[in-house]
Amino acid sequence: MADHSHGSPENAVTVAKPGQGGVQKFQDPGLPPHRPRLADTDPRAEKRAERQVGVLFLISIFGTLLFFFGYFFIPLDETIGTLRLQNLLLGLGTAFAMLGIGVGIVHWAKTLMPDHEVAEDRHEIRPEKDRADAEKIIGDILEESGIKRRPLIRNTLLGAGILAIFPAIAIFRDLGPLPGDVLRETMWDEGVRLTRDPSGTPIKASDVTIGSAFHVIPEGLNEAEHKLEEKAKAVVLLMRLNPESLNPSPGREDWGYEGIVAYSKICTHVGCPVALYEQQTHHLLCPCHQSTFDLTQECKVIFGPAARPLPQLPISVDEEGYLVATSDFQEPVGPSYWERG
Questions:
Q1: How much of the chain exceeds pLDDT 70, in percent?
Q2: Which residues does the UniProt record annotate as the domain Rieske (predicted)?
Q3: Which end of the chain is more exposed for a tag (fewer CB within 10 A), N or C?
Q4: pTM strictly above 0.85
């Protein structure tokens, strides 16, 4: 039998035993050798990289200007072609503006900024000394980045960075003033007929069968001066249920007509269009965040982040059998906001 005693733990030289002294420490290998890049050794490559970064920042500037052109100079005549053109310009402009800055900074860092590794020891916290160190670090960063001695990069970066802020400002400004009482009044009023969206064809009560759903706008909306703004507030969903399935609260018994009810299409969470009607469960579903409203309980919220039921539009019929509103909404439409009672 072969003798394996030399390989036992007692004889293995790789096992440290008590009393044999301390464990030998690994030596610090130090930083790896620095490999210079082409731009570090060739002045022509350095200039070429600088021009490339400048071109990328110019692309960002072009993208911002393209965004402004689409935003301010494409007239909104509500045709599909015009809307598609504006969306194309806004999308391309935003993409060029953001990618130009992002890719330009990355290319600048990889080709022109110092890439050597640095190891620094920790030091005690001394406020005055730390402030001086911070100033020195900032100065070193500016010097190493080369922004002081590279006017092409500096100027194009400033131009791209400053212009990139304005699209965001324009978009936020276009959100309009604070809600105030704007959402408390719509085009609905006593006697205003309910019409199909978008044709504007009046709807008779006999047209609405049990289980059907109509997207509805007030009569005259298509001829309104501010059509989009008015539609955003007044659009309605019209449905018919078995009257026995409805549970109106006191004072709302006459807000519908023979099981036909109308509710605001604007979700009370963030204002997305509620457009999905589940005929079997009588649920309305908002596709944005899955807020669900129970039509049999006056559109009470039964699931999701919405905090309020959908406002109901009181309706009746006129002498010709057409569905009409009996008043405007009794509460503001749309999402909750700080000025809403």
A1: 84
A2: 260-324
A3: N
A4: no
pLDDT tens, residue by residue, 293-311: 999 999 999 999 999 999 9
CA 246 vs CA 68, 249, 268, 304: distances in Å: 50, 10, 21, 22
Give the number of residues written for the chain.
341
Cα distances from 287 to residues 228, 239, 263, 290, 336, in angstroms, run: 21, 18, 17, 5, 18
Phi, psi torsion values for 278, nearest 5 degrees: -90, 110
* Residues forming a β-bridge with 264: 236
- The answer to whether 170 touches 238, Cβ cutoff 8 Å, is no
pLDDT digits (tens, 9 = 90+) for 235-267: 999 999 999 999 999 999 999 999 999 999 999
- R_g over Cα of the chain: 35
CA 63 → CA 29, 157, 190, 203, distances in Å? Answer: 48, 14, 49, 47
Distance CA 194, CA 298 (A): 19
Q: Cα separations (Å) of 185 from 18, 57, 145, 193, 291?
A: 88, 47, 57, 17, 24
DSSP string, 50-99: HHHHHHHHHHHHHHHHHHHHHHHHS-----HHHHHHHHHHHHHHHHHHHH
Let me know: does 74 contact 93? Beta carbons within 8 Å.
no
